[in-house]
Amino acid sequence: MKFSWKNLLLWSLPIIVISFFLWQGIFAPIANENNTNLTNSRMTYGRFLEYIEMGWVKKVDIYDNGHTAVIEAIGPEIGNRMQKIRVELPASVPELITKLKKNHIDLDAHPTKNNTALWSLIGNLFFPLLLVTSLALLFRRSNNATGGPGQAMSFGKSKALFQVEAKTGIIFDDVAGIDEAKEEFEEIVTFLKKPEYFTAVGAKIPKGVLLVGPPGTGKTLLAKAIAGEANVPFFSISGSEFVEMFVGVGASRVRDLFKKAKENAPCIIFIDEIDAVGRQRGTGIGGGNDEREQTLNQLLTEMDGFEGNTGIIVVAATNRADILDSALLRPGRFDRQVNVDIPDFKGRLDILNVHAKNKKIDTNVSLSIIARRTPGFSGADLANLLNEAAILTARERKNQITLKEIDKAIDRIIAGMEGTALIDSKSKRLIAYHEIGHAIVGTLIRDHENVQKVTLIPRGQARGLTWFTPSEDQSLISRSQIKARIMGALGGRAAEEIVFGESEITTGASNDLQQVTSMARQMVTRFGMSTIGPMSLENEDSNPFLGRGMGNNNEYSDEIAIKIDSQIKLIVDECHNKTRDIIKNNRVIIDKLVDILIEKETIDGNEFTKIIKQYTQIPRKI
């Protein structure tokens, strides 16, 4: 644990309290007894008087204001030798002094030392003072750590990070692949730096800009670039930091944030993951969260309420714009919604160029080839790709990143870590037929993607893999393309059935069958690609506040449900029969490819295509 005064005080406070009670209960009484605890031998007062009468007492010392006596005596009970004995005296014994003088016994009185008052002062004053001092130091440390006096108990203060000139180290040149979004914010930065260009024609600065896009596409990175370029005060906070367990804290923090922003206007407020506080009001199971709704109401008022917030630009980021409250999205609050999508080929190439600046990459490696092999990768995925390749290069003690390390990094990101190669010949051959079944069906169907690689090297949970190169445009998919994907997914199971027989099929196609069923159901219920007609019968996003799948309440009759099931089965059966025919008609090619795959364990797409062309004609891909 890292040493700090705060941790030291937190651990010492219980010790101080325990020590105080131990002192009061144990050590203080012992200190009071030390004055008279001169001997362990004791004698009753009556026996003491008998010793005086017998002449066995030689000396008496009086202590504790006449309450205790220590005598020196000789007697048969104590072995006829001089010993010191303690005697507790009654409250008033005037005759004792007379008897002592009459028997010529040496008498000495000892005044009580004032140690009790000292120990009482230490016990009753020192420990409380030490406790109060420790608490004061604790709060002082808390205040310094939170940035000012009173912060330790001020829950309603904003936790936003404030920078007069944000030094993020990121500028617009470091942001690539999202040119449209970057242009929007370059305009806002220009407005902040030179507002006269816009005000001259009556333009007003936008009050809010909402960044919407999938995770990893660069929304937060773009906000850092805005902070680095604008040269105006910059506030940054996460949406989850507004809402706490204490009622009213979120609304108070919103007020405090905008109060500070107005004092430093013109400025920028960046709220990351605004969906944590900006969800639709009055929705969800059991009603809405009142505390979160109060925070949202305060945010709506501050952004565009009665007073307004002139000179403050609110930039927010989310990947769940569908659950945000409609009042938050209207013009006047978030005037602009900027979509930050998955980059296309040019965007991926630009992103790779940015992240390759500090990497030692071999000159034979073409970043454009990597960009073409990674459709669907976000900016964060591409950054992670080059970083994984650099780690693999360092692990193999190489000086430069080659295409081999980049291939391994792509495979690792898509499918997981590489496992141990299979040894069992029977299992290896069965998996080889399964993967070749996927690959040959995908190759011989016109509307399917091209094969990129077939391998028997396990990765993640898969014991073998077949990669297809996805097309660049995934936004629109035709009916023939969906059916081609269904057939490609059924290729592995069909190969097992034809080669090994129905009784030897395995569980290896379980994930394939899930994908097949899902695609066939979507064709029927969402895309209107069946004989039921052009109707959308299910909507996955009907209620975003319920769990996935919980909000899909059937809005159709039982008769339609029966038709949906029959259409799904019809589509799957049709694709399955066509897939089996392809496997039967190309059994010679499949056996040849399986032998090569078992020997080499990996076949890339170009080699796979060349082998098939020796036996049959490959249809031209769309």
Structure, described:
With 622 residues, the chain is an alpha/beta fold. The protein folds into five domains: 5-32 and 116-146; 36-112, Signal recognition particle alu RNA binding heterodimer, srp9/1, CATH 3.30.720; 161-339, Rossmann fold, CATH 3.40.50.300; 345-415, Orthogonal Bundle (Helicase, Ruva Protein, domain 3), CATH 1.10.8; 425-613, Methane Monooxygenase Hydroxylase, Chain G, domain 1. Helix content is 49%, strand content 11%. The chain is built from 20 helices and 14 strands. It has helices spanning 5-33, 45-54, 94-102, 115-146, 179-193, 196-199, 219-230, 249-263, 290-304, 326-329, 345-355, 367-373, 379-395, 403-415, 425-444, 479-500, 510-525, 558-585, 587-600, 605-613, and strands spanning 42-43, 57-63, 68-73, 83-88, 106-109, 161-163, 208-212, 234-238, 267-272, 312-318, 336-339, 450-455, 465-469, 602-604. Strands 6-8-9-10-7-11 form a six-stranded mixed sheet. Helix 8 (249-263) links the parallel strand 8 and strand 9. 28% of the residues are buried. The model is unreliable at 30-36, 145-153 and 284-288 (pLDDT under 50).
Give descriptors for this structure.
single chain; 622 residues; alpha/beta; Signal recognition particle alu RNA binding heterodimer, srp9/1; Rossmann fold; 5 domains; six-stranded mixed beta sheet; five-stranded mixed beta sheet; 14 strands; 49% helix; elongated
